[in-house]
TrEMBL record:
Biased composition (Basic and acidic residues): 137-147
Listed transmembrane segments: none
Species lineage: Eukaryota, Metazoa, Ecdysozoa, Arthropoda, Hexapoda
Species of the source: Agrilus planipennis
Name listed for the protein in its UniProt record: Transgelin
Region (Disordered) location: 127-147
PANTHER family for the chain: CALPONIN (PTHR47385), MUSCLE-SPECIFIC PROTEIN 20 (PTHR47385:SF24)
Length: 184
């Protein structure tokens, strides 16, 4: 099996059709319109128009100009504008798919993961009252310690450091040199 085929097989195995359906339903619910019948999920998203409409619905004015025609360059521009807008919305760089993942259908699973990341980001926008996608992210918790608690921790050796119970230097050859025999 060629390397290219192995890579394609690995990417296809990562893809979860149920998550694709869940992401599609969420987009349809947010936008209030269904995907065109008979078209594949990735084909509908490929030109970036639906994605730009999605982020504009979540954060109005995020992508001011959406290209509905103009070919490959214009559609890839839509995708790039969408990516920049979702970063401003709160999606981390590591959660954003690469343009070729969608436009060339290289990694549709990553596109779906990005949509789930947008769904998680909606929880951080209290003004958003629409449908949600994915679980609510955990809130950060910053414990506060008193000065006394902090000082008491300085005298304790944590268990991560291990223990010296039962340790000895038996078997170590401290101070004795190695005997090196030189051959002829």
């Amino acid at each position: 099996m060629s390397l290219e085929r192995q890579v394609k097989a690995k990417l296809a195995a990562k893809r979860n059709p149920e998550q694709d359906k869940e992401a599609q339903k969420w987009i349809e619910d947010v936008l209030g319109k269904k995907f065109p019948a008979g078209q594949l999920y990735e084909d509908v998203l490929r030109d970036g128009v639906i994605l730009c409409e999605l982020i504009n619905k979540l954060a109005p004015g995020s992508v001011p100009k959406v290209n509905t025609s103009g070919g490959q360059f214009k559609f890839m521009e839509n995708i790039n504008n969408f990516q920049e807008a979702i970063k401003r919305y709160g999606v981390h760089d590591v959660d954003v798919f690469q343009t070729v993942d969608l436009y060339e259908k290289k990694d549709i699973a990553q596109v779906t993961n990005t949509l789930f990341a947008i769904g998680r980001a909606t929880y951080k926008h209290p003004e958003y009252k629409g449908p949600r996608l994915g679980p609510k992210p955990a809130d950060e918790h910053h414990p506060e310690f008193t000065e006394e608690q902090l000082k008491s921790g300085q005298t304790v050796i944590g268990l991560q450091a291990g223990t010296n119970k039962g340790a000895s230097q038996a078997g170590q050859n401290m101070g004795a040199g190695r005997k090196i025999i030189l051959g002829k």
